[in-house]
Amino acid sequence: QTIHQKDYTVPDYLVETVELEFDLDPGETRVVSRLSFICNHERGASPRPLVLDGEELTLLSLKLDGAELAPERYRVEEESLVIDAPPERFVLEVTTKINPATNTALSGLYASGPMLCTQCEAEGFRRITYFLDRPDVMAVYTVTLRGDKAACPVLLSNGNLVEKGELPDGRHYAVWHDPFKKPSYLFAVVAGDLVHISDRFTTMSGREVTLEIYVEERNRDKCEHALLSLANAMRWDEEKFGREYDLDVYMVVAVDDFNMGAMENKGLNVFNSRYVLASPESATDDDYQAIEEVIGHEYFHNWTGNRITCRDWFQLSLKEGLTIFRDQEFSADMQSRPVKRIADVKSLRSAQFAEDAGPLAHPVRPESYVEINNFYSMTVYHKGGEVIRMIETLLGREGFRKGMDLYFERHDGQAVRVDEFVQAMADAGGRDLSQFMLWYDQAGTPVLTVTDAWDAGSGSYTLTVKQSCPPTPGQPEKKPFHMPLVMGLLDREGNELPLALAGEGAPSGTQRVLELTRETESFVFTGLSSRPVPSLNRNFSAPVKLDYPYSDDDLTLLMTRDSDPFVRWEAGQVQALKQIMGLVADFQAGRDARVSESFIESFRRLLDDDRQDRAFLAEALTLPGESYLAEQMEVIDPSAIHAARELVRATVGERLSAELLRVRQKCAPAAPYRPDDGLSGCRRVNTICLSYLMAAGGQDAIDMNMAQLRRSDNMTDTLGALAPLAGCACPERDEALGLFYDKWRGDRGVIDKWFSLQATSRLPDTMDRVLALLEHPDFDIRNPNRVRSLVGAFSQANQVRFHDASGRGYRFLGDQILRLNAINPQIAARMLTPFSRWRRFDAARQELMKKELERILAEPGLARDVYELAEKSL
Length: 874
Ligand code: ARG
Ligand code: ZN
Hints:
Its EC number is 3.4.11.2. It comes from Geomonas terrae. Belongs to the peptidase M1 family. The chain has 874 residues and is an alpha+beta fold. It has 27 helices and 31 strands. The chain has an eight-stranded mixed sheet with strand order 6-5-9-3-2-12-15-14, with no helix packed on it. The longest helix has 34 residues, at 378-411. It starts with a strand and ends with a helix. Zinc ion (ZN) is lined by residues 297, 301, 320, 323.
């Protein structure tokens, strides 16, 4: 049941061409598949059987080279179709029947609202027809779609449309041909009553491409931003990487029921509608950014994923880590680079570091899996992205670009491993990256313990860096990693000092990339006149935990003077962390807890500094989140964390109300909202100031929220006012939530936000509210976005209420996972993560969470997805 990386063997047969015919119907779709096979092993006397993958299929007929295959020549098994001793070259024609309407797993061909669509990554194609459903089997596809003209006037598949026409009985057909060889996971079909908006794009070599976004009629006016983002992404990939688009048409379809964010099917991306649809009234600034990012991500896959794909699923990060890195860079170029970096580091540290520290920790390139869908993880995607970023830092921008060019030159059209990518980088950069490969194979977050020594006599300063990495499942010992540590040195006035490494002669600039390769190493800087303050891991150059004993003065210096925005922000976070963890200890010891004056002062300084970019200021004003704080504790105490963080928020709100109001005033909206008005930083600052004022309490703050709610012309400000109200034990809470619901009840995306706001309210009655919302007519357990907005938000973004000592939160989540298990295993498995952290809590909570995991494991008919995570968690 467990698949191991080391067991990889080349496929016994290859497929050269695939011809598919679909008679589309929601209740019963017939699929005829004509596959031309060629033997790929030394045949000898006894050729190996052909074993095709298949799930939930009804086989109707099977022909080999045109002749019906006798029953004794094949077997249909639970998850495969086996043909003994086929010839060396042959054409197999398989006819199967599938039922999209009952496909609630949303993998394969399924119905979403009025349309039929597919999701084939990772192993959904086998739910459409029998096939060698693995990424190293690449073929050229021709697809004929037939369907009812009224129900599905639009019939789409990959590649270029070659023919379409009428059929009897109100039906019609379309034929699509994709000239590029592709693995089955990139196959897609969409059929439905859709409208589209379109644009033209001329590539750098002068080819004309049609861009089309398909949606249901009611969403026609919500696609403009996605279309614009697509053109921007295409231009960006040409400019930054010299990559241009390769088909005549690029289509994006928005569907409401989707397990993940989006899918990069060749020429026909299928998207979760939340990453396509936006209007100025209904979408927040963050929504606009997320759309740009995901549109970019899927577009960039065309080269990093589609033209060059993965040999096997262990190599998933080959395409995902690299494409995450590319979409991060795209967003950084379109928005504010420092603020984007901060946001990415925040999500990495709160979610990926936690994954790396728990029972589900796995390397960026896992060694084994039971269900591959469980490895579409923060580690494979986001740590994978950090690994690519480190290569860029080691090679420099130019070297990295050369490496990318070489990678495309060598491997276009192939299915390769991570090794081939890293080798191209090593060859282009003239570097040895063999030790660097450990990042792909060792799990766990490394810790850098930094100490220093100052020798006034010789003016030399020694930094000693010791790296370690905690054990993870199956990996008790770790070898040292090769990593870039970008750093600088500041004097007490905050000047950046020229860096001269002992033995190197003249200083070279004020910033260096120190390369770590050994467990402990020292770097001696000379020619200094006083003890410097080290500025370490600038731009978060390595995805590690950094341990250096900064004093409060050091932190203030870095916060106000460092040249690296990430370090400036981080210094503030470290200060806040120290403050909050101190209060946590006070609460736990029953001591009087009080926020320090110096902390208030440093917040005052931030608020008084008018030169700061507003979006950066908003990040600097945001305290570390409760889950990140939890990660810092040996035994997590959710109530103490919540109480301590709230105390800081309330104190800031009270003591700095004048400053907060002043900053808000300066950011007051002056003109009607436009998503691209350049004021999103201002809106962010506004929101955070309002939340501090609200934390301090009082009717004035409530009135201010209500006023903002009434006058807001955009979703960012509306939610900025509504979120604090949803967490306020005041009559205005239900009033505001009710008004909001009445206004937006027809808009799925907005109603998702309405569910999440209530699920993440820190008020003590939240569990009851969540249970009531489960019964709300708008709650639909089969819709992944709705499940995420209620079940996911409550259990993953409301630590204090989910971990209520009574265990009610755990019971609730266990119930929902079991419900989902029977409907959509992928989503059920996604909901399980909070339970995987059970060992980090006190004995009573451990017991309660363990009981839920055991209850889940005892369920008859548990899906592979859920089984694997529950079993590994225990
Ligand atoms: N390749 C897609 C992306 O990164 C994710 C699709 C994964 N889907 C799944 N069911 N595992 O954009
Ligand atoms: Zn991706």
